Automatic annotation (TrEMBL), chains A, B, C, D, E, F, G, H:
PANTHER family per UniProt: HYDROLASE YCAC-RELATED (PTHR43559)
Coiled-coil regions listed: none
Gene3D superfamilies with a match to the protein in the record: Isochorismatase-like (3.40.50.850)
Database matches in InterPro entries: Hydrolase_YcaC-like, Isochorismatase-like_dom, Isochorismatase-like_sf, YcaC
Boundaries of every Isochorismatase-like domain copy: 14-165
Protein name in the entry: Isochorismatase-like domain-containing protein
Amino acid sequence: MTTSYNRLDKDNAAVLLVDHQAGLLSLVRDIDPDRFKNNVLALADLAKYFELPTILTTSFETGPNGPLMPELKNLFPDAPYIARPGQINAWDNEDFVKAIKATGKKQLIIAGVVTEVCVAFPALSALAEGFEVFVVTDASGTFNELTRDSAWDRMSTAGAQLMTWFGLACELHRDWRNDVEGLATLFSNHIPDYRNLMTSYNTLTNAK
Amino acid sequence: MTTSYNRLDKDNAAVLLVDHQAGLLSLVRDIDPDRFKNNVLALADLAKYFELPTILTTSFETGPNGPLMPELKNLFPDAPYIARPGQINAWDNEDFVKAIKATGKKQLIIAGVVTEVCVAFPALSALAEGFEVFVVTDASGTFNELTRDSAWDRMSTAGAQLMTWFGLACELHRDWRNDVEGLATLFSNHIPDYRNLMTSYNTLTNAK
Amino acid sequence: MTTSYNRLDKDNAAVLLVDHQAGLLSLVRDIDPDRFKNNVLALADLAKYFELPTILTTSFETGPNGPLMPELKNLFPDAPYIARPGQINAWDNEDFVKAIKATGKKQLIIAGVVTEVCVAFPALSALAEGFEVFVVTDASGTFNELTRDSAWDRMSTAGAQLMTWFGLACELHRDWRNDVEGLATLFSNHIPDYRNLMTSYNTLTNAK
Amino acid sequence: MTTSYNRLDKDNAAVLLVDHQAGLLSLVRDIDPDRFKNNVLALADLAKYFELPTILTTSFETGPNGPLMPELKNLFPDAPYIARPGQINAWDNEDFVKAIKATGKKQLIIAGVVTEVCVAFPALSALAEGFEVFVVTDASGTFNELTRDSAWDRMSTAGAQLMTWFGLACELHRDWRNDVEGLATLFSNHIPDYRNLMTSYNTLTNAK
Amino acid sequence: MTTSYNRLDKDNAAVLLVDHQAGLLSLVRDIDPDRFKNNVLALADLAKYFELPTILTTSFETGPNGPLMPELKNLFPDAPYIARPGQINAWDNEDFVKAIKATGKKQLIIAGVVTEVCVAFPALSALAEGFEVFVVTDASGTFNELTRDSAWDRMSTAGAQLMTWFGLACELHRDWRNDVEGLATLFSNHIPDYRNLMTSYNTLTNAK
Amino acid sequence: MTTSYNRLDKDNAAVLLVDHQAGLLSLVRDIDPDRFKNNVLALADLAKYFELPTILTTSFETGPNGPLMPELKNLFPDAPYIARPGQINAWDNEDFVKAIKATGKKQLIIAGVVTEVCVAFPALSALAEGFEVFVVTDASGTFNELTRDSAWDRMSTAGAQLMTWFGLACELHRDWRNDVEGLATLFSNHIPDYRNLMTSYNTLTNAK
Amino acid sequence: MTTSYNRLDKDNAAVLLVDHQAGLLSLVRDIDPDRFKNNVLALADLAKYFELPTILTTSFETGPNGPLMPELKNLFPDAPYIARPGQINAWDNEDFVKAIKATGKKQLIIAGVVTEVCVAFPALSALAEGFEVFVVTDASGTFNELTRDSAWDRMSTAGAQLMTWFGLACELHRDWRNDVEGLATLFSNHIPDYRNLMTSYNTLTNAK
Amino acid sequence: MTTSYNRLDKDNAAVLLVDHQAGLLSLVRDIDPDRFKNNVLALADLAKYFELPTILTTSFETGPNGPLMPELKNLFPDAPYIARPGQINAWDNEDFVKAIKATGKKQLIIAGVVTEVCVAFPALSALAEGFEVFVVTDASGTFNELTRDSAWDRMSTAGAQLMTWFGLACELHRDWRNDVEGLATLFSNHIPDYRNLMTSYNTLTNAK
């Protein structure tokens, strides 16, 4: 029952943010909007913090799907940005795949809207080309839980690993001593419970 | 961990609609009836839109199970229609299997009521004969979530892929440019949130 | 413990549809969108069927709130339509109140988006002016259940009666014999379970 | 804050079973069908056990609404049975009200399908005529929880008391010593957990 | 809208623990058993801590209902203990009412199993005799949420106040300075989250 | 992706009912008690109907676990009945395994209380000895959904197939024409929605 | 049934933020932490935006309850800040009541942690002194939904009005034309769905 | 489909308790705190009862994560206790792995907070080194159910077995006769329903 455990490696991982567009976000109903927005921004901050190559893509952004969340554009002004003219599976867009391959990374961290399409299709394509795929389930959203469960089953069966942004951050960071403050700030900004712990802790230790 | 990704191909796929009968529909309690009706009609519209060969079948329709949903009959007046005299697994009916094989397709998209019987049995039979099977989980219904989860596990373990109608449409369509209006109409008719996006978009762009 | 029961009377009731706009609808998350759309259209059909004076109003429809659901415009082409320039409580708009008073009706049936504002504010205003108020809870939507429960408590405490569209239809109709086919059609178009009953029934009785 | 507590009195109470018809039962989705069937039969057994005058009524039973649950007909072969020709509110049917008044009882225990119509309408009418009304919430069913909550609010505000069959049985019985075995049998037949307690208890005490 | 606020007063309150028996506890399914056990013991500890007169009663404890939770017997060895021979409403037992009146208190805090019977019946009786009644909702349990909601509505309408053990403790204590350690111990023993806060706090302040 | 589909065969299947004891049943909280009791009895009726060899076993039935549900004893008076003196995994009891092997069947249908122990342990043992194992998920119960989900994952991963009693009945029966009335009676007795369909159907067809 | 509707008036309302402390926040489990944090900050921004006099208070902030959320301190640097030495009901603290009376306002908007204590106690006290009380239910949190529902019932019965921050903002603002941009910014910062609407709208209108 | 079933063996199993720290516990929101605390203590008692080598570890316990639950320290005063200076995956700490290997056990029972990190990382590492891994799902907690489901999928796919503490106890104990009283005490202390069964049973049998 031995299984090799290829951990996420911050020197070998890239982040794909697929179709987090203002219109499409109104379709997401399997996660509460306050939580979902927080998760997406946490993933983006994480990508920034670990300096992971990040690729943005949108589907038909001039139509009803709407523009990319402005926060993502602002966080990654220099990232490859592929506004796909029509391909639903981002992997069908040559520029998108080129941008991925240009990073030289073999571990792909994927999140998007909606899960069973914008995440699952490129995830399955990437697996078929030999990439390791890590789906960020809490930064990916879709119509309802039934749809999500179906999509998770399809991706997991094909070999994708289901993770959430907090687990990603921890697996990439490995050891708090690499940078206590940086990681703590990331958590404090995106986990209210953790922020509360820090507030109480800091107050008590400063009071000494 | 490489996995081949055989996408749904509109030239190689057929749709099986199994036992969506007026009586049996009253047994479906794992999905809200408004949503379920919409999903079934969306799948039917999708089959029509992509011109996928579609096969209808019913179980004992002159008894308490009741007649097929009239909307399905009306949408597919010329489709093979197999009113099974008694076989519970539609695959045990020779005419049904003949009709499938006559399509020459190797990818079977299956939905029905109830999931663990009318969908799972033919799905397992088709897998055993080498077909690729795509279960439309949101156009299939059953008694409750516990039953559904058991059925999904059995089908997934046997190799069926769990999908929902929206994912099917996207995987079949591949590229919006193949027909923007057609796909958008399908979505607008069956996804109220998407319809709202289009309403706002059209109003604003027409106002220009 | 005697309580007078002033029933809804189709000769004394008017319907107010408040802010069912394409943008605002994306805020509604206490009811599934398939069900909510169906409920709103059922209420509209009901108003039409009973020939109740109906008044449409919108809030800032040229901004992000978006245009009124086109289906409502189409159903009531001649209804008073008040596009409010800014008043959040529709009752603060003189034209709106004038239109209501012009109907001469004393029973107001109100639905809208979002419940705690677009419904509750005019409901409270109307109660304060002596109208009987019937809130259509299933054709009114808001951010989440916590918000809805708060709004219901506020309105109920103030004297509004909480009803759903089906109950309204039944209380207005009084007796099936007034028009069996009309009421049955309304139910068949908006209650999938009832449609199934009718399908089975008609099939069996026609087969005789 | 003193409130008079007029208890249910088995010599002053009648039971109204409104529209528990085979077709209408398929509309009930706020209670699981196994539990709902059990609750309705428990209420019927309770009425029988306490020899409460019981009145049966149906709405359009020759149409899609379907026939009364056969178990109810069998339990009360001699009860007044009013097959209403069209009145939706049973109280609008003279025979129904006459049958009630003929019992001479002032406390009405009402259950039916669907809650906001078949229960709420006669409940409100009875309250308006000075009866005490006890709604059996768990033997009354409707489309969904939102509808139920609205109906409960309307009835409670008007003075109806919301109870469940077990509470009714206990309030009517007053003291176990009036008949231990009879009450225990009622509970054992309709509360699996209570039956288990009795099974274990009887086994242990018989083993002595 | 002025309302008098008669606070719970530890010098004027008594606690009634009704039918927390080993058999009846298996009927409780509206609260998770780990949480429910904790709530009942918290209420008992609270009664002990504030030295409130406490009265225990059971229904048919030699039958399937089973013996009182041994923890309650042990905590209140000298409390009036009324094993009712048959009365379902504890208020129908003279000894029970005598014991209550003997305390001279006018505020009654009631909890029990099951809510709609063992709590609601004596609550309604007590209100009718002019007592103030505080129902401890989280130390009272019943078959399911529908039953609970009905029982709450009946009791609240009759004038009972719905509270939980934590609120009771706070309203009785008034000011932390009356005894910081005592109240904190009560909370630490029954609120894991509060215990965690204290553990972290104590560790940090002791480390200074 | 071809998978062999070895269907349940009524000539090659045996049923194991493990520890459905009155005491243990009070531990079951992942399924509502009305539904659970119905499911267990449905499975028993099914075993009887298809004349499947059935084996009963209990754990420590003279202690707090309590006696077997009397209904099961009554239904299978001649079935092997192994009251295990202490083995938790029924497969560790030689008499139990002998009784199974004496049936000569290779397909084992297992249900019990609690799922992760009384079902999972013998299921895993049977799989290890080469039997095909079908777990009846809706006639097996445990403490909560988290526990159930863990148990299902462990059994499914080991090769057990998760089914519910209705699916079992359909897979064993194969064709309605083998006995329409027998199967319909089984469904009518254990599926209220199906019973309603039959009631309406029979009334209408008898009326002809 | 006429009810006077005394609307919230920004010239007559004050905001009381009670015990939103880092430690106590870990007790809040009836609202998701991402959503709860957002709601509290939305209420604070609202108070700021409408320039409502705001009063902060804490309970034992040097103990395990922890310090006030720093964001609140920063937003209201000049607000009365009452660190209560022990009073659980903030209204028992003279400074707190003085600060309230100093505002001269008669409408009190109250939020806090935990709902049934820190909100309910001062709410009931304020009502008893003739204030109008508006509870901000979504910026108040507690242990679980059962506790919340009990607290709401107690407060509503006593005359408090249950509202959420969005409804408050709308009732205070009255008319969009008073300041479109200000209100829209408040909504955009705290309602992701509204922000999305604005993003799409602005993109489309700017593109003209 | 034969699968070997390597049961948990009390002579070959060790328990790893990872990061059950007072601060981190406030992050756990996928299990109710009363239940979670009970589960963790049940697992600890189980480890003690079966005399399984147990290893404790913490992450940054002098920071906001807080100290280990004192109950665990007290139960295992002589167990290896590794306060990790920074490694997030406990397996990256040499002392931790050394302590595990020193036990000579090949079956590792792991629980911790949070599931997807503190449990999943060492579980995957242990699997990669050939250990058998049993995750105690109900003594492991995390942010929400979505996160938990993702973590379970990742661990299960890698070969970990998902179990709960009750199943562990039963699989380790094998036969009640090995020690009836010991196991019963463990259950009585941590399963309220089981304690109730024992209370009723003992009362009845002692009464003989």
